[in-house]
Amino acid sequence: MQRKWFQYWFNSPFYHILYHQRDDAEAEFLIDNLIASLRPRADDRILDIACGRGRHAVYLNKKGFDVTGIDLSEQNIKYARQFENRSLHFFVHDMRKLHYINYYDLALNLFTSFGYFETELQHVNALKSFRKSLREDGTLVIDYFNTQKILRNLTHMDTRIAEGIEFHIKKFVQDGKIIKHINFEHRNKTYAFEERVQAFMPEDFERMFEKSGLRITNTFGDYALNPFQETVSDRLIFICKKA
């Protein structure tokens, strides 16, 4: 079975070099605001879906919660496991497949860690897995970019330098996806990666939530949890319950 772009790119050390500016302060700001809004109980179990290197999960655990992080990248999970303890665990796992049934009180899918798959059916299947992992009164949070704002402000060519590497980034829209081609040289070797993320609009999520047995209870537009405004919001954050 052919590996997908996300299986190569998220497992690469260059991914973290390019996006090194994603700081813990931003992650902690979002988590603090979600906790203040959702008010999880002290004994709630939390699932961090596509947890990356675990920055959200580690912070949640420091706040006293029992947290499980799952990610498809073996390298991410290998890194995150240095933080494990009795109430913090990390597993290599595909979000499209069921992890636990009726187990978690809160499931989080943060920082546009969705929209990677080729078909809507695959995305709906992932959402069904999220739903099944939750207890009856559980809550799902999905944090996506605001596609409308991204498309309006798309910079087609960009160059970034990080750790002495000059990353050349080409962005374009094709077949309903926002695509990045990332090219660079390192130690006399040429590398090429790509990102392909679905340009999902609010109505796309509404349709997929309905198909997967979820209902939206709130929608926010940034990490301060201000209301979503399609023309200006940076993020599209859904709070969902089982339908």
Describe this structure in words.
With 243 residues, this protein is α/β, with parallel strands linked by helices. It contains 8 helices and 11 strands. It has helices spanning 5-9, 13-18, 24-38, 55-62, 74-80, 120-133, 147-152, 202-212, and strands at residues 45-49, 66-71, 88-92, 104-109, 134-145, 157-162, 165-174, 177-186, 189-198, 214-220, 235-242. The model has no long low-confidence stretch (mean pLDDT 94).
Short description:
The chain is α/β, with parallel strands linked by helices. The chain has helices spanning 5-9, 13-18, 24-38, 55-62, 74-80, 120-133, 147-152, 202-212; strands at residues 45-49, 66-71, 88-92, 104-109, 134-145, 157-162, 165-174, 177-186, 189-198, 214-220, 235-242. The protein contains 8 helices and 11 strands.
Descriptive key words:
four-stranded antiparallel sheet; single chain; globular; alpha/beta; Rossmann fold; 8 helices; seven-stranded mixed sheet; 30% helix; 243 residues
Query: Portion of residues in helices?
Result: 25-40%
Strand arrangement in the largest pleated sheet: 3-2-1-4-5-11-10
CATH superfamily of the domain at 20-145 and 201-242: Vaccinia Virus protein VP39
Assess the beta-strand content as a share of residues.
Answer: 25-35%
Average of per-residue pLDDT values: 94
Order of helices and strands: HHHEHEHEEHEHEEEEHEE
Largest sheet: 7 strands, mixed
CATH topology of the domain at 20-145 and 201-242: Rossmann fold
Number of helices: 8
| Level-2 CATH architecture of the domain at 20-145 and 201-242 | 3-Layer(aba) Sandwich
Give the overall shape, derived from the CA principal axes.
globular
Total beta strands = 11
Q: Unreliable segments (pLDDT under 50, ≥5 consecutive)? A: none
Distance between the termini: 35 Å
- CATH class of the domain at 20-145 and 201-242 equals Alpha Beta
Structural class: alpha/beta
Radius of gyration: 18 Å
